[in-house]
Every structure is written in C-alpha cells, then in structure tokens.
C-alpha cells in the first residue's frame, strides 16, 4: 500500500512537508500536487519553484482544474456524444429538476462547479477504466493538500484514486474544516466538514489507507496549543498537541478581555482582530478579518470577538458543533503568542482576565 494521510495540527508545517517530499523525489518521478483554494495553490507554486530546484515533472493544480482537465473535458463524450466542456461556471447552479446535459452544463456549455464532482465520477464509470488508465499514464503519484476541504462526490473520486496504481498522499487538518468544494451537496453528507475523519478511519480499517498523526505545532505557544485541544470534545480522539514554540515576549497564553479594557489592550498589543462573519462583532469598531479568511494565516497575537456558541463554550464548557468548533479552532490557532477573547463574564472558565 502506498496511500497515506497525514493529519497534522495547525502550525505543523503541512505544506512545507509536501514541498520537501517533492524535493526528495527522483527527477523522473511525475507528481501532481492538488489543493482547493487559489491562495494555497499560489503558495505551493512559489515554494516548489525554489525549494525542489529543477524537478521538471511536478505540477500544481486546483481541485476543480484537475477534475476539468483530466476528467470532464477529455471524457464528456462518453456520456454525451458530440458535446464539449467550453467553460467553468463557479457561481451558477442547474435548475433543481434539470436532467441529462442540463444537469451539468449551462447554456454556454460551461460546467457547473457544484456538479463537477458528480460528473467526474460518472465519467470514471462510463469510461470503463480508460479515464483512470490515462491518469495512471500521466502521473506516478498525486499529493492532495488541505484534503479536509473536499466534499460530496469528491470522496468518490478519492476512492477511485486510492484503488489505482497511483501513490496517493494526502495532508490535512480535520479541525480546520471550514471550507468545502461543494457545501450544499447531499452526497456523502455524513462526512461533511470535520466528520470527514470518519471517512478516513473507515478506509484505514479496510487497509487501503494509512493515517499518520502529526501533533507537533511550531506556531502556537504551549498554552494556546493546550486550549485548542479543548475545543473538540474527547470523542473525536484527536491527539494532544505538542508545542515547539519557546519564544518568550512577556505576554503569552489565552486571556479574556472585558469590554471596558478593549481599547487599551489593542493599543498595547496590536492583535489581529477576528470575528465569525460580517454579521458579528458590530458592537466594536475594529479592523476585522473573518475566521474563514484567516485560515492559513499566522499572527503573533489575535483578539477574537466570540459568537454566542463560543461564549457558552467558555462560560459553561458546552462544546460547539463540528463546523463552529472548526471555525473557532482556526481562529485560536492563528496566534503564535497570545489569544484574547472579548468577554465580560468568565462563568466557570478558569481563563484569566487581562488587567491593564
């Protein structure tokens, strides 16, 4: 078996691990690196252009581009003879009663992003092995970064790849499952967002995938790492995070900040202010970044304006649902040295209040 999933905590240098793996490959090894977001694609291209040197057969591609280039465009005629994919429709959706070609392509023959995974999977079956054989001839291995962002029919595609002659290496952090390639899809809904951990563990039990845990963070201070471990309850069976951050600045850890001390705290520590969405945090005139947009970022200090669910979690210990927990985990683990949470009352929490 040559299929691996590395589940790595925030700040564990996941992307750098992919870059270093590519640098170690033989010159004639043909590798495809796939990820969902354009930001991560740009980061991978930048690092791979300098770190591995002159490896000629390492490509970086977005997930949708992969499905378009190697599935939909060359093999659409296997289901719809004489038809071609002439574009990509990211925002649109087919009519809910649409069938046949209209289910997948709009009037300009651009494929709907929300139906691309389903189309790709149907083309795998319709091609009777030809599509997969072509991919096996093009690549020797496929690496997928931020694999937790996949959803819906994408898991069917991963199943096909895991059972191919390709080496498949995946890297991700289930606790950062805040994005999805197709958030409205009903296919594999039980594996949506953080629940994808169950999909991986099922494949490991079948012997088609080996899961490797990397619980070492180089970013988060030990107190932040320890707090981040409490966000998901113990039933998730995530390993305890080990911190390698030894930096001392005189203000480390997780703190609560009362409303009346907020301006002074910001003036003294200049944290990046985070909120759940544009609809939250309106009580304070701060320069915000939303949780989801902060994913992949790193700051010395962050200040979080909490949702009602986060307030309840801190004050009473009631755990958040999977997706809100993932959003909060992303917010907390952006910080290297300190996390401040705006809260007037600690409830039963033992987190200390910052005092001017």
Got a strand count? 15
Please provide the ordered H/E string of secondary-structure elements. EHEHEHEHEHHEHEHEEHEEHEEHEHHE
CATH topology of the largest domain: Rossmann fold
Q: Main beta sheet, described?
A: 6 strands, parallel
Which percent band covers the strand fraction? Answer: 15-25%
What does the radius of gyration come to? 22 Å
Spatial order of the strands forming the largest sheet:
3-2-6-7-1-8
Describe the protein.
- The protein is 35% helix and 19% strand.
- It has 356 residues and is of the alpha/beta class.
- It folds into 2 domains: 3-214, Rossmann fold, CATH 3.40.50; 218-342, Rossmann fold.
- A 6-stranded parallel β-sheet has the order 3-2-6-7-1-8, sandwiched between helices. A 5-stranded parallel β-sheet has the order 11-15-14-12-13.
- Strand 4 (87-89), helix 4 (101-104) and strand 5 (110-112) form a beta-alpha-beta unit.
- Helix 3 (63-75) packs across helix 5 (113-126) and helix 5 packs parallel to helix 7 (154-162).
- The longest helix has 14 residues, at 113-126.
- The chain starts with a strand and ends in a 14-residue tail after the last strand.
